[in-house]
Amino acid sequence: MKFIEFGYGASKDDNPLKAGAHATSDALKNLSKSSMPNVVFLFSHPDYNPEEVLNGVNLILGEKTTIVGGSSKYGIINNNLCENSVFVGILASKYFNVGAGVGLGISMNPRDAGKKAASAAMDDLGMMPKLMMVFMDYCKFEEEVLNGIVDVLGITTPIFGGTTSDDFKFKETYQYCNDAYFDSVVCVAIGGDIIPKISYSSSRSLMDHTKNNENTEYMSSDGNNKKGGITKGKQQTINYNDNKTIITDANKRYIYSLNYINSLKYYKNILNYEGSNMELQKDRAYYLSHPFGLVDSNGNIHIKGPISIKNDILICGSNVMKGNELKLVDINDETIKKLFDDAISSTLNTPPKYTKHISPLTFCLTSLFLTEISKTTIKECLKEYTSNPLFGFTPYGEAIFSKYMNYTVSMCSIVPDLISISAKEGIHMITKYPATKETMLKIDTMGGAVKIEELAKELGIHRRTAYDRVEPLLQCGFAEKDRATVKITEFGKLFLKFWFK
């Protein structure tokens, strides 16, 4: 019995309207004909016209289904990394409800916009949400937007989402909330019989990848030695281990100086980068794979960047402050695999652990910066996750709980709350078919699996009557039948455990 259904589809059609329509049609093919979509997650490459893509989706679904999402350079669909695409994911279930809201002008009033989006989503839902999903523009005030959402939602309801992305222009991102928006935040409140399982790659996993003072080989993205290529045995201008890297001048995301030295000059000295400032500025893969991480009071590292370099200034992915200590981190294939392993392991080991009634979907956010460093490694990591389909996008930053982070692999499995569902289904079943309670308890006392004929003898009823009694158990998913044998399912065992014993 499926408690939550998930369908996915993608299209690379050059026509945005056709791409939206084709991706949606493919997603619907993965759902049963009787399913009614609760929410549509729509993501598209930034080069697509968002209004036309949305029109294509509405051609297939009509305008009553909630559609949320935004732009993304890459898409994650069925454990594959897709490019230059429109990709759609549809969740359908009678066991949860969805409400959506949008806050406009987040670059002008970020906290207020976050409040408005969260309030509108909760009002639309009509109940306290179990999960708040967030998709926002890259506005440089993401932390304040998130604070606004927490002001309304509180700290107990989990938050999961991130910033929409483009092709590193940082100005062509957009969002969907039943319409196409720019400079906005979209909140999606999900309530009902679900349990979100959220995880993200631990900053502890980066401790083994901080740069030390040993001679290390570095190769720029084009293999040109002049641009910071292989420099072995050369004495560094700054002894990294003997001098902590402290931010001495900064404004929000801009680092002007480190240890009272121009930030770009300091950065090049640490890496023995021999190319010009302009060459480094253009070598995105190189500086993204050698970012600074902020060291917190617990010794954890939160990667900040640079995510871009302009006017000889390092620009971070999220806010930093004067006085913060930084460590240089090497992001390579090994690091990326470790980040994925941490997120996957945490997701699988977070309760509840169902063996059969697992989530039909794990929503995956893989930092665009990690993807830019090594698409090949990201594709390999996605393929290795086989528990259930991965679906998601590549954000500039990730909003997890009340934190805004960069360079993470984050996951959210939406799991049915089987205990709550079993109570509702069981009450309905027993009310309509009172004899099924006795039948289910009898099957349990007979070892949990029994032939219909033997069950009839134990109950003192005709074999045909026994089939009639078992039928409601099969319809509700409390039992399953193999030929003439009926067996209590894991879902049925939950019902017995929490409501009959």
What does this structure look like?
The strands form five sheets. Strands 14, 15, 16, 17, 18, 19, 20 and 21 form an eight-stranded antiparallel beta sheet that branches. A six-stranded mixed beta sheet has the order 1-6-2-3-10-11. The two termini are 24 Å apart. Helix 1 packs parallel to helix 2, helix 8 runs parallel beside helix 10 and helix 12 crosses helix 14. It has 501 residues and is an alpha+beta fold. The protein is built from 15 helices and 29 strands.
Taking the sheet with the most strands, its summary is: 8 strands, antiparallel
| Overall number of strands | 29
Helix/strand/pairing category: alpha+beta
Percentage of residues in strands: 25-35%
State mean pLDDT (0 to 100 scale): 89
- What is the multimeric organization of the chains shown? single chain
Computed over alpha carbons, the radius of gyration is: 26 Å
- Could you estimate the helical fraction of the residues in percent? 25-40%
| Low-confidence region ranges | 212-242
| C-alpha termini separation | 24 Å
Number of helical segments with 4 or more residues: 15
Shape, principal axes of CA atoms: elongated
